[in-house]
Design a protein that fits this description.
By secondary structure, the protein is mostly beta strands. It contains seven helices and 29 strands. The chain starts with a helix and ends in a 25-residue tail after the last strand.
């Protein structure tokens, strides 16, 4: 049901996917880590530029796509075979027997594991960006277009099989649900300073980002809802306490959904980072890093609605089949729940938090060309409403030389899913994924991840420690491996 309203959400998701395909790994380890990360490394820890080996770096364009969920999957599939089949995907017979395609190469199905569900979509395009180090100072400028859709704690009863296993007349409890989506552009300024201490070097840096929101929405139910399906058309609820909001970029023109661009809106955020370098017995540094990333929020014109009533309500789903505008939909929901078509609207502005997180890292050099990095990123859950990061723990051994670098990230995603990635840098070009199996190894394809970057790569620089030794100096020739 709610077919025409659902087109709004589907179009928003489709827009984000289109941006990504014409252009996040969750944290893009192959772009953000290492002594040659340059401008891209500033986005995970702003102090990384002061502790790296590049005197300057220019990013022409970098882009990535990350999607993961545990609600549905495509069976016996990987991303490359799926693309080669021209997305020849049908639905398994038990889900949609009327439209079952017997000859499809791949089949979509739903997980039936009685687990809490989650979905996360993360895309980015980093445009022209620059990092420059002079003496103990670093300066930078970067541009980004980003989009995130997240819902990390969907009650298991909302799983496809779990929900459709309930009988008419059976009351089910649907726990609190939160979901959000945000697309935005940003321009960032960077500054950092390195202090020489008796035991090592301490680098402190920050990014200040000015944000133009493009489109956003969020939904939040504040307490459990007890729902009974009376028949195929009618549901009953013992009361609701929820809110939702959306921006003004979409409209209906001649009963067709159109995107006109969000009017107005502004936001700001900061990244703060520190890296402490300690000399090891082998003359190579041990780097300990910490950062606060994407801490900030945006505001934009839109609609905010609150729906709160302790009374039992019944809703006929048939009433929603012919809805032709968002105004008609919001009025119908308000009338069904509050007995007044305008009572739910509580504001004309949408405010949302960005996907803030805290990162901790350790990077150890074993030889001049072999390093191991451990990075943990935890989302900030207490700044709402907004969009959220995913939690990751990554251990990345890498072979690192000035013109060639290869990494093998081993990533624990959201504290439960283990996957292995791979990254390769050949001078100015970087390619990588934090989920190698999703691209090449057939299985239950529930998400994927890839990224690419093209840079103007320095042929020489004067930063100390170019040969990998702590406290040494010299130039690196373009033929040096």
């Amino acid at each position: 049901m709610l077919i025409k309203y659902c087109r709004r959400f589907s179009l928003f998701l489709g827009m984000l996917c289109l941006i990504a395909q014409t252009t996040m790994a969750q944290e893009q380890t192959g772009l953000r880590l290492g002594n040659y990360a340059g401008a891209n490394g500033l986005l995970l820890n702003p102090a990384s530029g002061l502790s790296g080996k590049l005197q300057w770096d220019v990013n022409l364009i970098s882009a990535g796509f990350f999607f993961e969920n545990n609600y549905g999957y495509v069976g016996k599939a990987a991303l490359l075979p799926l693309i080669k089949s021209d997305f020849d995907v049908g639905t398994v017979e038990q889900v949609d027997p009327e439209n079952y395609q017997e000859g499809a190469r791949f089949y979509a199905d739903f997980f039936n594991n009685n687990q809490q569900k989650s979905i996360h979509l993360n895309t980015f395009v980093t445009g022209p960006s620059v990092m420059l180090r002079t003496g103990n100072h670093s300066f930078g400028l970067f541009t980004n277009a980003r989009a995130v859709v997240s819902s990390n704690r969907i009650p298991n009863i909302l799983g496809y099989y779990e929900f459709y296993d309930t009988e008419y007349g059976e009351e089910v409890e649907i726990g609190p649900v939160e979901a959000g989506g945000l697309a935005w552009g940003e321009v960032g300024l960077h500054y950092g300073h390195q202090l020489e201490l008796g035991s090592g070097n301490l680098s402190l840096a920050g990014n200040l980002k000015f944000i133009k929101p493009l489109e956003g929405f969020y939904f939040k139910s504040k307490s459990p809802i007890f729902v009974t399906t009376i028949n195929s058309d009618t549901i009953r609820s013992g009361g609701v306490d929820m809110e939702y909001s959306f921006s003004n970029g979409f409209s209906y023109e001649d009963e067709e959904l159109a995107y006109n661009g969000s009017k107005g809106g502004f936001g700001m955020s900061v990244d703060l980072g520190a890296v402490y370098e300690i000399e090891q017995s082998n003359g190579l540094p041990l780097k300990l890093g910490a950062s606060l990333i994407d801490f900030g929020k945006v505001g934009m014109p839109g609609q905010r609605h609150t729906l709160t009533t302790p009374s039992t309500i019944e809703i006929s789903l048939t009433d929603y089949e012919n809805v032709t505008s968002e105004e008609e939909l919001t009025q119908l929901i308000s009338d069904d729940i509050l007995n007044n078509i305008t009572a739910s609207r509580t504001g004309d502005r949408t405010s949302m938090w960005l996907p803030g997180g805290i990162s901790l890292s350790a990077d150890m050099g074993f030889t001049e060309n072999f390093y191991v990095n451990a990075t943990m990123v935890r989302r900030l859950r207490y700044f709402k409403p907004g969009v959220e990061r995913s939690n990751i723990l990554a251990v990345t051994p890498r072979l690192e030389m000035r013109w060639v670098e290869a990494g093998l990230p081993i990533v624990l995603y959201n504290d439960k899913d283990l996957r292995v990635g791979a990254s390769l840098r050949l001078g100015p070009l970087t390619l990588g994924t934090d989920d190698f199996g999703s691209i090449f190894v057939p299985g239950k394809l529930s998400g994927t991840d890839f990224y690419v970057a093209l840079r103007v790569y320095p042929f020489w620089n004067k930063k100390e420690g170019q040969d990998g030794k702590f406290g040494k100096s010299g130039k690196v020739k373009c033929y040096k491996w």
